[in-house]
Amino acid sequence: MSMHLDVPTLSLLALFGLAGGIGITAVGPGGVLPTIGMFLLTGLSPAGVAGTAIATHVATGALGTAAYTRSGQLREAVTRRTATVLAVAALVGTPLGVLLNTLVSGRGFGMLLACAVTVTGVLVWVRERRTPVAGSEPVSVPRTLIALVGFGVAVAAGLFGLGGPMLSVPLLVVCGLPVLSALAAAQAQSVVIAAIGTVGYVLHGSVDWGLVALVGVPELVGVIVGWRIAHAVPARRLKYALVGTLLALAPYLAFHS
């Protein structure tokens, strides 16, 4: 690793990775947790935080995509179409997000991250209220709307080092897509976001591969655990716990130096 971190800090970072992986496939907005952990605990620059965090999502996105293909969601035509539109939008939005990251200061990054975390918490809460209304079968959402969601999510993901499900899942559910279909499509988009974002940050020399391994391996374990949670048990309590955690962390992120 490029910096010396003590054992408690390393353990906390690994736990952020595990919790993030569970959140990614169980409720969607989990990929922000590794970013938060690195921002609060490592002292990395904004580019270092985002670049290292987004690199962990290459493997988690691929594993999540495989998991939701196995369980059938990504074999459905509507879900595959949604995933394709999201992925194409990510080709444009992610590089823009990486570029924007190079223009913000550490304090500005914290403020923007706090805003993103707050928006995510609200979206998860809105999604939870909408879920009983939405059906379990995939529905057709206008491609233009999906493309706008995909572009906006990709810009934010490139800026903060996210995989994409953090924002795309609640937004897609609000648009009318069932939760499992939204989770599946978001995993596929996250592969594109993470791959392009990683290349961009590598070119800037902003990826700490030691931290990628430390956070990414537990995150992969969490992806499998979260996928099982999403299919096996009601995740309402987990969702509300995530909302509470995000909203509690937002003020601290905003004023963290």
Automatic annotation (TrEMBL):
> Which InterPro entries does this one have?
TM_pro_TauE-like (IPR002781), TSUP/Inactive_protease-like (IPR051598)
The source's domain of life comes to: Bacteria
Provide the transmembrane region boundaries: 47-69, 81-103, 109-126, 146-167, 210-231, 237-255
Provide the protein's localization.
Cell membrane; Membrane
Q: How does it sit in the membrane?
A: Multi-pass membrane protein
Which Pfam family is an annotated match for this chain, by its short name? TauE
Question: Which positions make up the signal peptide?
Answer: none
Keyword terms, alphabetized: Cell membrane, Membrane, Transmembrane, Transmembrane helix
- Member of which family? Belongs to the 4-toluene sulfonate uptake permease (TSUP) (TC 2.A.102) family.
Q: What is this protein called?
A: Probable membrane transporter protein
Q: Which organism is it from?
A: Streptomyces aureus
Lineage here is: Bacteria, Bacillati, Actinomycetota, Actinomycetes, Kitasatosporales
